[in-house]
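User: quick one
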Amino acid sequence: MIRAEAVHKRYGLAEVLKGITLEVAPREVMCLLGPSGSGKSTFLRCINHLEKINSGRLYVDGSLVGYQERGGRLHELREREVCRRRTEIGMVFQRFNLFPHMTALENVVIAPVLVKKEAKTAAATRARALLDRVGLSNKVDAYPNQLSGGQQQRVAIARALAMQPKLMLFDEPTSALDPELVGEVLDVMRALAEEGMTMIVVTHEIGFAREVGDTLVFIDEGVVVEAGVPREVIANPQHERTKAFLSKVF
Amino acid sequence: MTIDSVEGHRPEEIRAVPLRHPGRWVATAVLLVLAAMLVHDIVTNPRFGWGVVGNYFFATPVVDGVEKTLELTFVAMAIGVVLGVLFAVMRLSPNPILSGAAWLYIWFFRGTPVYVQLLFWYVIAVLQPTISIGIPFGPEFVHMSANTIVTPFVAALLGLGLNEGAYYAEIVRAGILSVDHGQFEAAQSLGMRRAPLMRRVVLPQAMRVIVPPTGNETISMLKTTSLAVVVTYPELLYQTENIAARTFETIPLYIMASFWYLLMTTVLTMGQYYVERYYARGTSYALPPTPIQRIRRNLTTLRRVPLSPTGLGGL
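Assistant: Done. Structure below.
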């Protein structure tokens, strides 16, 4: 589903990603772990081309992200094509980023109607089903600021799912939540994983990574330090930096 | 530390002697005296010519001028808003030619007095006697005299509208910049392209920042239309000066014009209040009631709950 080959990303002189190489299989749940500033969020944002990579190759579903290779050269994709590819990738943000001037339902309906040209009534029916699935059928007409953080994040997940993506990216989805609200969001994500969604999750929730994740990748200073089956990496980290990080998180 | 959670033990209500404010009494007295002096002068000074004010208030040329002032205000403002949004979006475009062109436009029209711009449009025929439509530097199909196209109304519209566009562009730009960057990313990640992203996600949120200065600009525009006197467009002030030139009742007529302007700006101010409320959707838990709602609520609470136990009325 995703193949990253020596992905590098610079901001000015600061190199944030220094050669990330990894592969995500369909239906796999990969958890990215690492200290803040390690580049894990940046990597996530490169996958749907919110950030351009400086070198290396990044493939989603077999095609290059943001470029097309013709005659041995890379050509930038047109906006239309970049946007079409993004519709196949759902993204959930740390700060929810719901559209505050729209109700929960409108938040979920807008992209299918505007981007995929779905009929409004059909999109609304599906949106209600999605909101029901994340346990918010009674909050359909609420504005984001009338919802708790956990509820907002569940609307955000429903909004991303409304585009029927093949892949979901989660950028620290529970980091901005009060502790008692973390569970409800993780439950939704767990259910999604059980249905076979391919997911990449940047998280600090070690428990979630261990129970739901198929692979755990530990990233530090822009490189993959260690990767493997979550249970094993957590129980028996091989690398010093992984050990140090895990000891702080637990 | 001890915690006593037994209910029922409630100390008596505090009934303190309120703080006295002698300064307020002094200020009230001073202001009352000044107000009385002002009213006395207004009523007794014959030079105000209140009768003349009343006589001309609904005179045909005056009402006609008021209509033209309103028309000019709204059309010029509409031009300003359309140009403003266009140039603001251009200015934030990643395309350097577009953003440069927008910068140049704003620089020029904001940097010269609107009075001078109006004068220029008025004498445009001197600079450009004919206006033609055709292929640039090639054959021309239609010729027209500039004087027939640029009538006083068109000159006033161009002068006021183009100038407003430059100011409004900056207001819209401020609004767009006020929208959280996460909103752009969320919309992009859903596959939205730039145009729908702006129209459906960013601009509605920018409106909250844009609307108050828009009210300001509209009110300012309404008053600035009086400069259209220089292009001989017969709006309110032009008509007023016309009558004054005939009757020499200058002061009462200017007072009359001022009342009309004040009346119109008051209506606009009230309109702005409701537009702001509309765009405040989703920004606070509950909007404060409108004056009408407040009056209605007060009436119902008076009738139903003479004194509620919480002291908060019927809220």
